């Protein structure tokens, strides 16, 4: 069948148009060897109004299939990455300045972390975070951390000791947040949204470098299970392994760091917000002073939150359920065969967790007036419009709120012991 001239012309023009679109869509495409990927970004105070930005960039090593694990800090090379620091007025300017001294363009598409020094975070991170969130290359998987000391020094010790991929190492490190509950996993978009939210305040992961100088060489104390003391990152008594250490939660009011929760307070916070997955808790034994009980705790769903006003005062109630397995009992009490002691232990555990959560909430109210629990979302339901809620000013009223907790602990294993059978004789 022959095509008439009109049909042929239309199809030819359409084909030409499609080809033009395909070609134009690749105008800014780059070959893989034209870019290098920043994995970590560190931000410190610079001179005057400048910021000091440190980039940790993955390297190419021809013929080696990845990094060799060697380090040369004098040249900025560390375990398959190159570290560069520059002072600039903004993030974009710092990238452009480094690009001018490099044969490859720096890309943020694979960036895993942005690390602010505590000094910088206490002065306010807003002017840096907003341009970062607007930068088209930044992905959704970048985490926000605040480090003790300088971010530049932190990055100089940031390396993978197991495996060659620092990117994979960072991802696996944040999986431990779910396994321990000692620190939160905070993504950039979530962090940024809460900076200006009328409903809640934002948080970040607390981190530091451990210099391995706090582990006692010997101890005369009895070798028994004891609760982990309240620690800051960089203070875990250990030696060897990665010096990078995440522990605790940084609390913000607006865009300024105002304080932090230690690792134990962090777990209570995560429980109250439905972000806790599982973890071991070591508590005092109510039947044997000086002994401890180890609990394997699993969160059972997300807490139910209700918020009302009583005589103009906001009242918030949390209803939550946790699953408990008793992992270890130093006094060897057999709760499985003692129903009365079983009930007593259950009530003791419920009081322990309820009091711990309430203490953390009270701390955020009285010390920082920072609603990191997002109670404002539930308080807003008492207003007819968003504008009315915003005029109320929840951030100013958070410290006035009365909080109540109804917590039930479901103990699935209560310390059953298998006793040896008596020796039997046929004589």
Brief account:
Helices cover 30% and strands 28% of the residues. It has helices spanning 5-24, 91-99, 118-123, 126-134, 151-156, 166-180, 188-195, 263-272, 339-368, 376-379, 386-392, 394-397, and strands at 35-45, 51-58, 71-72, 77-78, 81-88, 105-107, 113-117, 143-147, 203-209, 244-253, 256-261, 278-284, 292-299, 304-310, 313-329, 402-413. Strands 1, 2, 3, 4, 5, 6, 7, 8, 9, 10 and 11 form an eleven-stranded mixed beta sheet that branches. Strands 12, 13, 14, 15 and 16 form a five-stranded mixed beta sheet that branches.
Sheet with most strands: 11 strands, mixed
- The low-pLDDT segments are 62-70
Q: Please state the CA-atom Rg, rounded to the nearest Å.
A: 28 Å
Mean pLDDT: 83
* Terminal-residue CA separation: 107 Å
The helix tally amounts to: 12
How much strand?
25-35%
What is the H-and-E element order?
HEEEEEHEEHHEHHHEEEHEEEEHHHHE
Number of extended strands: 16
What is the overall shape? globular
State the domain count. Answer: 2
Q: Given the helix and strand composition, which structural class is it? A: alpha/beta
Percent of residues in helices: 25-40%
Detailed description of the structure:
The chain starts with a helix and ends in a 14-residue tail after the last strand. It has helices at 5-24, 91-99, 118-123, 126-134, 151-156, 166-180, 188-195, 263-272, 339-368, 376-379, 386-392, 394-397; strands spanning 35-45, 51-58, 71-72, 77-78, 81-88, 105-107, 113-117, 143-147, 203-209, 244-253, 256-261, 278-284, 292-299, 304-310, 313-329, 402-413. 30% of the residues lie in helices and 28% in strands. It has two domains: 33-217 and 225-261, no CATH class; 265-417, GMP Synthetase, Chain A, domain 3 (2-Layer Sandwich), CATH 3.30.300. The strands form two sheets. Strands 1, 2, 3, 4, 5, 6, 7, 8, 9, 10 and 11 form an eleven-stranded mixed beta sheet that branches. By secondary structure, the chain is α/β, with parallel strands linked by helices. Helix 4 (126-134) packs across helix 7 and helix 8 (263-272) crosses helix 9 (339-368).
């Amino acid at each position: 069948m022959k095509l008439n001239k009109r049909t042929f012309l239309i199809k030819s023009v359409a084909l030409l148009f499609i080809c033009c679109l395909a070609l134009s869509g690749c105008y800014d495409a780059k070959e893989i060897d034209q870019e290098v990927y920043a994995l970590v970004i560190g931000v410190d105070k610079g001179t005057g109004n400048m910021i000091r930005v440190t980039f940790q960039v993955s390297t190419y090593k021809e013929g080696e299939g990845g990094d060799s694990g060697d380090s040369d800090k004098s040249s900025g090379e560390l375990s398959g990455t190159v570290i560069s620091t520059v002072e600039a007025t903004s993030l974009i300017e710092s990238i452009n300045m480094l690009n001018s001294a490099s044969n490859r363009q720096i890309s943020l598409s694979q960036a895993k972390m942005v690390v602010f020094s505590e000094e910088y975070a206490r002065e306010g991170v807003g002017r840096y975070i907003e341009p970062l969130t607007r930068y088209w290359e930044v992905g959704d998987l970048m985490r926000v951390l605040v480090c003790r000391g300088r971010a530049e020094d932190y990055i100089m010790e940031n390396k993978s000791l197991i495996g060659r991929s620092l990117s994979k190492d960072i991802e696996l490190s944040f999986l431990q947040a779910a396994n321990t509950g000692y620190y939160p996993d905070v993504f950039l978009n979530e962090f940024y949204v809460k900076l200006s939210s009328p409903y809640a305040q934002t948080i970040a992961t607390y981190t530091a470098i451990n210099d391995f100088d706090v582990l006692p060489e010997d101890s005369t104390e009895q070798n028994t299970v004891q609760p982990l003391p309240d620690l800051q990152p960089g203070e875990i008594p250990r030696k060897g392994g990665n010096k990078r250490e995440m522990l605790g939660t940084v609390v913000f009011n607006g865009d300024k760091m105002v304080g932090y929760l230690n690792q134990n307070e962090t777990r209570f916070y995560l429980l109250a917000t439905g972000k806790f997955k599982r973890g071991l808790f070591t508590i005092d034994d109510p039947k044997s002073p000086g002994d401890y009980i180890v609990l394997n705790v699993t969160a059972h769903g997300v807490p139910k939150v209700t918020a009302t006003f009583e005589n103009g005062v906001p009242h918030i109630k949390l209803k939550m359920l946790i699953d408990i397995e008793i992992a270890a009992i130093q006094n060897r009490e057999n709760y499985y065969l003692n129903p009365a002691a079983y009930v007593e232990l259950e009530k003791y555990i419920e009081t322990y967790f309820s009091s711990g959560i309430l203490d953390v909430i009270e701390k955020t109210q009285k010390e920082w007036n920072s609603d990191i629990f997002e109670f404002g979302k539930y308080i807003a339901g008492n207003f007819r419009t968003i504008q009315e809620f915003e005029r109320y000013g929840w951030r100013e009223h958070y410290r006035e709120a009365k909080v109540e907790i109804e917590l039930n602990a479901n103990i699935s294993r209560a310390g059953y012991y298998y006793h040896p059978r008596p020796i039997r004789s046929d004589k």
